[in-house]
Specification:
By secondary structure, this protein is an alpha/beta fold. It has helices at about 1-20, 85-95, 110-115, 130-140, 165, 170-185, 205-215, 235-250, 260-265, 270-280, 310, 330-340, 350-360, 375-390, 395-410, 485-490; strands at about 20-30, 40-45, 50-55, 60-65, 70-75, 75-80, 95-100, 100-105, 125-130, 195, 220-225, 255, 285-290, 295-300, 320, 325, 345-350, 365, 435, 455-460, 465-470, 470-475. A hairpin with a 2-residue loop joins strand 20 and strand 21. The N and C termini lie far apart (about 55 Å). The relative contact order is 0.16.
């Protein structure tokens, strides 16, 4: 009798679930979840912004998206996105990104950043607390105010021009001022402490450790662009990686090293071995890379202080103005470096061979370092899927998805409980979902035409709201929400 009753209950519940009408049903796609390993044809039911049901049985929805022959996966999470305006977000969405965060260096003012984007964001957003901005403020040279996100192609100034605020050592009083500023920024909702040590070469080892101590005190990670790159000692990339790993070991703060391929160049594999060694000994150290041979940064920053050519092993001609394609001469470099006007340049300092060895490494998650004028802003994720999964076969599709969704989500779990619902395609997870054609997914952005959108994303949902349909951006919707750190929760903001 009891067995018959249980069978009856299961039949009733099964019938109820099958009869439920979902807000959206994604029907008949190849559903892939990097955490559980699910890889099967399934139907996905979405209700109230959550994945409510994943089933082999047909589901009924208020609207249905046919996904036969398409991959259904968690939305991609970009931990390293500088351009935060709506035009950049549209490009990110067409590349499969549902969450894009300014974590390398951080927005100059967390409150302004979060308030400006609330209700005005296509995809999910968040920021770290900026050490370079706090340092500039402590030196009496504050960075310019945040540019409103609604401004077309808005890109905030994230680092100070080369000068005292970047190059001079700080006094104990200035370090205290930085720490006070960063504590306030963490209280305002920052997800981490963001450092661009190469952009603040005056920061002593003691100053760096103090920033890591603050992160450990507040139970958040440090995301950092390391101090230097190249082979020259002192100041090599190996030494720079050692510095931040040591700071993590001393303080206990989790460490995320940004764009390790850009920081370590031809020594990238050695640097990755250092990360692996730190992790094997119990340190919480992670890293990321992007699939391009050229970096991009501000030419009037401290990165281009005297000696940069010797460190990077490049000449002036390896620096290219993205808007014009101009290769710099010494005279033109000197003119732009001395200017107070921000100007980005492409830096061709890496090789395709090294990038091809870096991207498949199991320690490496994918992050774009996205900023206008570089193709990585529009094409990073589709490029990985096309080049490393479809063409080279050096990554399985599941491993690529893991690098783009689950691994970044797990990194974010150190900062916010909301990340537990990201990066997964599971019942109860946030309905941040991508649906794409694995045979045709491709990047189209180039160094000459960096804003060409990727192709192959059929549908993209953020919190259950479609922002890409039939391969085209949806207008009139802004479902993106903030991810905020523990400070905001602790203060009740």
């Amino acid at each position: 009798m009891r067995k018959a009753f249980l069978v009856f209950v299961v039949m009733v519940l099964g019938g109820t679930l099958a009869a439920q009408t979902y807000d959206v049903v994604i029907a008949g796609g190849r559903v892939m979840d990097p955490e559980t390993g699910l890889d099967a044809v399934r139907n996905v039911g979405v209700t109230d912004g959550k994945i409510a049901r994943i089933s082999a049985d047909p589901l009924t929805g208020k609207r249905t998206m046919e996904a036969k022959g398409l991959v259904v996966a968690p939305g991609f999470i970009d931990l390293h996105q500088h351009s935060q305006d709506l035009e950049a977000q549209r490009l990110k969405a067409l590349d499969g990104v549902t969450t894009a965060l300014e974590l390398e260096i951080g927005a100059p003012d967390v409150t302004v950043f979060l308030n400006d984007k609330k209700g005005h964001s296509l995809i999910n957003y968040g920021t770290s607390a900026s050490h370079p901005a706090a340092r500039a403020l402590a030196f009496g040279e504050p960075l310019p105010p945040e540019t409103p996100v609604a401004t077309p192609n808005a890109t905030p100034v994230l680092v100070a021009k080369s000068g005292p605020a970047t190059d001079k050592p700080a006094t104990p009083q200035q370090i205290d001022a930085m720490l006070a500023r960063l504590r306030g920024e963490l209280d305002a909702g920052a997800l981490a402490v963001g450092m661009g040590i190469q952009y603040t070469p005056g920061a002593t080892r003691h100053e760096v450790i103090e920033m890591f101590r603050l992160a450990a005190e507040r139970h958040v990670p440090v995301y950092t662009h390391v101090r230097s790159n190249g082979n020259q000692e002192p100041g090599s990339d190996v030494e720079s990686i050692s510095e931040v790993i040591a700071a993590s070991a001393i303080t206990g703060a989790p460490l995320h090293i940004v764009h390790i391929n850009s920081s370590c160049l031809k020594n990238t594999l050695e640097c990755l071995d250092m990360v692996a060694g730190a992790r094997a000994r119990g340190l919480d150290v992670t890293t990321e890379a992007y699939p391009y041979i050229a970096g991009m940064t501000y030419i009037n920053s401290a990165l281009f202080n005297p000696g940069f050519r010797e460190k990077l092993g490049i000449d002036y001609s390896n620096l290219v103005v993205p808007d014009t394609g101009e290769h710099l001469t010494e005279a033109r470099f000197n003119e732009l470096h001395a200017s107070s006007k921000p100007q980005v340049v492409l830096v061709f300092a890496n090789t395709q061979e090294m990038v091809d060895q870096t991207i498949p490494n199991p320690l490496v998650m994918i992050a774009s370092d996205g900023e206008k004028s570089h193709p990585r802003n529009a094409g990073t994720y589709s490029r990985v899927l096309r080049q490393y999964v479809h063409e080279k076969g050096s990554l399985t599709l599941m491993d690529a998805l893991r690098k783009m969704s689950l691994m970044p989500a797990q990194m974010l779990e150190r900062s916010t409980p909301a990340a537990h619902q990201k990066g997964r395609l599971q019942e109860g997870a946030d309905a941040d979902i991508v649906v794409f054609d694995p045979a045709t997914i491709t990047d189209r952005s180039t160094f000459e035409k960096p804003t060409q959108p990727s192709e192959g994303m059929r549908y993209v949902l953020v919190g259950g709201t479609p922002i890409v349909e039939d391969g085209k951006s949806v207008t009139g919707v802004l479902p993106g929400k903030a991810l905020v750190g523990p400070g905001m929760h602790a203060t009740g903001n």
